[in-house]
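From the methods appendix. Each design record in this collection lists the tokenized structure first, followed by the designed amino acid sequence. Records were kept in a plain field format so they could be parsed without special tools. The example shown here is representative of the layout used throughout.

RECORD:
FOLD TOKENS (382 positions):
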């Protein structure tokens, strides 16, 4: 498949139709006898995805896989972040997929191995790495067969387990994934001193620590406040403490580092709204460190179930958004005025609030509908 897509005329046709309606294009007959219109559209979609997700692949000669493989791949941003964490001599990715993680993670290693059971996908990855000038050993084999036959040791093993049922919207258990980490963790640790595993952002952190005693680090990675990955690190030695890193990439917010278990020992201070209101980023919310945030930054929490914080003096290194706000009453809201509406621990959703008060969306001003310990309140940006 790779060679026929690399034909100069095929590539020219793909590039000439990057902005064409793809539904209309699929109805046309392919101008090339050996390349279907579906394959052409697949390449166009790949370039469109790469523009936002992994722009380093916008290079002549790069071939893109089917849509599902693009969706399952890490973004360039998250892969680059992970690449800064580990280094060593020998690295192996046991679930290579489209190879985005492997490409970045392997930069601090001398020997690189990629294992992928999909032969067509591995052919594409091997070709692309050649275009990019990257060397590796490519193995087309099922992960289970590789583990049974392998005699090598590696400094770091990386895995990105896939959902067994692609139609499921939520994955909460490791048993729902392929490979099942619970089944192979001992074998993995017999080949390597460190294992790095990418998981769904929906996975429960306490559950992970219960079923995987070798965890020594957890990274919660968001991009522009959208939590993309939970990455866990395993070792042969059970760690006495687990370090958690809470990250919001493409923001100026600092990384928040804490030890798992600190939240249970932390006590939040509560208070009514003061001059500044703090909204934690979604990685912090995923981490569940609601009391720790109050204690560490010296902030008052508005309500046990309202994850908003306040202070009279600004705390600039907070991992989230900071607003200067004032309390207002509902009668002070002018109809048809323009606001960004935020609802936290409030009976109405933002759309319902905008409809009730006849508000236009957007602009530079904010309204927060929420609750303090004294009851429902409305905050307006100053």
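DESIGN:
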């Amino acid at each position: 498949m790779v060679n026929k897509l690399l034909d100069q005329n095929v590539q020219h046709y793909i590039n000439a139709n990057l902005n064409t309606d793809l539904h209309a294009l699929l109805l046309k007959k392919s101008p090339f006898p050996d390349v279907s219109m579906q394959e052409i559209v697949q390449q166009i979609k790949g370039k469109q995805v790469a523009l936002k997700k992994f722009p380093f692949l916008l290079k002549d000669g790069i071939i893109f896989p089917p849509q599902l493989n693009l969706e399952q791949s890490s973004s360039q941003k998250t892969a680059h972040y992970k690449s800064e964490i580990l280094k060593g001599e020998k690295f192996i990715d046991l679930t290579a997929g489209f190879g985005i993680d492997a490409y970045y993670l392997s930069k601090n290693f001398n020997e690189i191995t990629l294992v992928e059971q999909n032969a067509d996908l591995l052919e594409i990855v091997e070709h692309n790495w050649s275009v990019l000038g990257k060397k590796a050993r490519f193995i087309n084999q099922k992960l289970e067969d590789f583990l049974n036959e392998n005699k090598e040791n590696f400094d770091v093993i990386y895995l990105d387990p896939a959902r067994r049922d692609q139609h499921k919207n939520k994955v909460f258990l490791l048993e729902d994934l392929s490979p099942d980490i619970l089944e192979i963790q001992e074998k993995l640790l017999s080949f390597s001193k460190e294992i790095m595993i990418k998981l769904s952002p929906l996975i429960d952190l306490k559950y992970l620590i219960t079923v995987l005693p070798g965890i020594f680090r957890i990274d919660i990675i968001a991009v522009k406040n959208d939590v993309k990955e939970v990455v866990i690190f395993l070792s042969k030695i059970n760690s006495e403490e687990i370090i958690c890193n809470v990250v919001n990439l493409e923001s100026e917010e600092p990384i928040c580092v804490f030890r798992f278990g600190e939240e249970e020992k932390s006590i939040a201070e509560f208070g009514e709204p003061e001059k500044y209101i703090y909204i934690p980023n979604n990685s912090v919310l995923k981490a569940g460190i609601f009391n720790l945030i109050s204690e560490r930054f010296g902030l008052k929490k508005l309500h046990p179930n309202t994850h908003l914080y306040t202070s009279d003096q600004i705390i600039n290194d907070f991992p989230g958004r900071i607003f200067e706000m004032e309390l207002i009453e509902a009668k002070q809201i002018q109809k048809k005025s323009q606001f960004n509406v935020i609802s936290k621990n409030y009976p109405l959703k933002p759309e319902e609030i905008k409809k009730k008060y006849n508000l236009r969306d957007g602009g530079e001003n904010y309204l927060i509908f929420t609750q303090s310990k004294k009851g429902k309140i409305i905050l307006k940006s100053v």
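APPENDIX NOTE: The first strand starts at residue 90 and ends at 93.
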